[in-house]
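User: Good morning. I'm curious how zinc ion would be positioned relative to this chain. Could you predict the structure with it bound?
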Amino acid sequence: MINCTEAKQLINPFIEGTAGLVNTAAFLRHIRQCPQCYEELEMGCIMKMAASDTPEEEEYDLNRLVAGLIRKRKKTLTLTTILAACGILIVAVSVVLFLLHLNGVI
Ligand SMILES: [Zn+2]
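Assistant: Good morning! Here's the predicted structure, ligand included:
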């Protein structure tokens, strides 16, 4: 479990999508339990929006923006976890096949 100081350092990387998987997962866990850091994330999003030149008519809903960002990061996290799991499975199957081959089964 990361603390608030660590979580705050992850806000910008999280928004930019450069936090990395482990940090993203830790950050998501943290903001679920920490309203202060969730607010900091909202602030970070506002700053980001202000810094980028979003057209005026695209008036944004902050709650939806933050929720959308979190959903996007969770999706990346899930996808990567599934891919990693598949990778492990393939390695495991290869090892089993190799051992069977060594023992003359196949
Ligand atoms: Zn916190």
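The radius of gyration is 20 Å. The chain has one domain: 4-80.
Let me know if you'd like a different ligand tried.
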